[in-house]
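Weekly sync, protein design subgroup
Attendees: M.S., D.O., the rotation student, P.L. (late)

Item 1: inverse folding check
M.S. brought a backbone from last month's batch and wanted to see whether the design step gives back something sensible before we order anything. D.O. pointed out we never logged the input encoding, so this time it goes straight into the notes. Structure tokens as presented (108 positions):
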């Protein structure tokens, strides 16, 4: 599935099952909540915390939840995420093509 197809699939789902999009501000709050849920799993899986009884290692699920809300926000605000990601890659390539290669901190 391409990013464009993902945006379209989310839009179809919202129109068929979701009644309507939540407001942009509500979705921004939901996105923040979902990022927090991912942080919780990351802290337990890769950090110093351990999973509490009943918690699960659902890293992929939390990432997908973030992507879902981000796709909603893109649809609501008319953002073509494919085009924006392409621009971002180009910007990072022009700005950082040598920066990380010469970063002593990144050398093993």
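Designed sequence read out in the meeting:
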């Amino acid at each position: 599935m391409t990013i464009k197809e993902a945006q379209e699939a989310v839009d179809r789902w919202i129109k068929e099952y979701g009644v309507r999009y939540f407001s942009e501000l509500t979705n921004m709050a939901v996105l923040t909540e979902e990022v927090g849920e991912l942080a919780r799993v990351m802290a337990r899986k890769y950090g110093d915390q351990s999973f509490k009884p009943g918690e699960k290692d659902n890293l992929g699920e939390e990432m997908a939840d973030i992507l879902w809300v981000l796709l909603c926000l893109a649809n609501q605000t008319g953002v073509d995420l494919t085009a924006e990601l392409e621009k971002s890659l180009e910007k990072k390539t022009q700005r950082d093509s040598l920066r990380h290669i010469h970063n002593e901190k990144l050398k093993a």
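Discussion: The mean pLDDT is 96. The domain at 3-80 is CATH 1.10.287.1080 (Helix Hairpins).
Action: P.L. to compare against the previous round before Friday.
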